[in-house]
Amino acid sequence: MSKNIQKTEGIVTKHIPIGEADRIVTLISPSIGKIRAVARGSRKPKSKMGGHLIPITRVKISVANTKTIDQITEVETIESFRKIKEDLYLLSKASYMTELAENFVQEHSESKQIFNLLLQCITLLQIAPDIEILVKFFEIKLMSQTGFKPEMIICSECGTKLVPGSYKFSFESGGLLCHQCAGKIHSFTEKLSTNSIKLIRFIQNENFEKIAKLNSTKNLLEEIERVISGYMRSILDKELKTKPFLDLIAKQTKNSITSKNTL
User: Fold this and answer.
1) Residues 217-241: pLDDT tens digits?
2) Among 65, 139, 211, 238, which is most exposed with the fewest C-beta within 10 angstroms?
3) Is residue 103 part of a domain?
4) Count: domains in the chain
5) pLDDT by residue (tens digit) across 166-219?
6) Residue 76 belongs to what domain range?
7) 71 and 187, same domain (yes or no)
8) How many other CB atoms are there within 10 angstroms of residue 93's CB atom?
9) Are residues 65 and 137 in the same domain?
10) Strand, coil or helix: what is 97?
11) Residue 88 to residues 38, 239, 249, 260: CA-CA distances in angstroms?
12) Could you tell me which residues come within 8 angstroms of residue 3 by beta carbon, excluding any fewer than 6 positions away?
């Protein structure tokens, strides 16, 4: 049986064991989009592929297209992101970003923008001074790339241009509501302060180099987190599997910092 071999690069997002020695591996590729393929024998101790197909790894792969499930025939690591894998906090953030990206990528569909954004942010995780603002950068840019850009300039219901101030954000409408529309709409909303709105707008329009120089307060990021998380649940109609893990790690990190400060 002839096989069509495709060569590409990708970021491994997850793998699932099947049978006694195999795995089904999921990757995000710039040229093919989401890839689901079996890696035969990759769970065997002497497998040449197993060590390359760990989640949060950038790889070169060859994929054989078959009538059933695609098969990985060759794999080579480009970047292992070792620093991330040795830090549970960084790993939780990287896992969240890869799962989130995977939900917006289609199989057999070019996904260069999403791949490049994910690669950029995973790379920055290893050096960024403010990890939380990096995650917000990733989420907001991802939504902009996939047609879900939060509307922060005009009312998402009536189109009225908004003057500076605090407004409610509608998860259903995907943007801010003017005060008149906010009084009529009773679906899920979350209030955003003037400074939070300014920060979201800034992230939408700037690169991370400029955003990293901001001195955002913790309360500001927590406010934005409530809105972004609610909006993301509305878009995907589900809670991401990595979110509870992410929240647990964040809580443990917060407690650890609090304990050190009280010594």
Assistant:
1) 778 998 999 999 999 999 998 878 7
2) 238
3) no
4) 2
5) 999 999 999 999 999 998 877 789 999 999 999 999 999 999 999 998 876 778
6) 4-81
7) no
8) 25
9) no
10) helix
11) 28, 21, 8, 18
12) 64, 65, 66, 71
